[in-house]
Amino acid sequence: MSKTPDDVPEAAGDPTGRLDRALVQLAPVKRALVRASGRAAARVRSCDGCPAKCCRAGLNSMKITRIEAEALRRRLVGPDLAPLVPEILRRAEAEVARRGLKDGPSATYDCPLLSPTGRCLVHGPAQPAGCLTFRPVPDGGCDHDLPLFHRKEPEIARAERAAWGRLAPVLSIPEALLRLFRR
Ligand code: SF4
Ligand code: SF4
Fold this sequence. Notes:
Blueprint (H helix, E strand, L loop, with lengths): L17 H26 L19 E2 L1 H11 L8 H15 L29 H4 L1 E3 L5 E3 L1 H19 L6 E2 H10 L1
Antiparallel strand pairs: 1-4, 2-3
Bound molecules: iron/sulfur cluster (2 copies).
């Protein structure tokens, strides 16, 4: 079996390999964002020691594309994270219900991929582009690097079209995970 460049398992139900090829397209985009994130951490400050406020209700209203959700799914079925998936989906269900995510287009939520110790379970190239471009800034706070995010959006859209021929609406992370694992 072939692997994507990030060495994640192939999807079941991808007989033509379109998803694999789309994820190969997506991988360098994410790697570039990971590198940019590392450079920003070195230049400004790292997230170490922060309780990840940006991943919690009040601040986090992250929405992700379908192809990014597929990258997350493949990361989650890896042997280190697969045992955690039932608990992640339980948290996702609870957040969808608690925050009214289906009805609230900009509702904030606790990300189900945040570990109890405040660490992103998918830290690295599987993280959505929105997460990889949110970071500490020199004024002491944190902010979205929107210019970088917008520069990468067309490449992400190209990968999504390569997979499904069209763009799907973006979804919150809890909704996206539930659709993928419970479809
Ligand atoms: S981006 Fe800011 S809020 Fe989010 S984990 Fe890093 S330091 Fe904390
Ligand atoms: S995927 Fe990771 S970085 Fe993004 S909101 Fe969830 S826990 Fe935070």
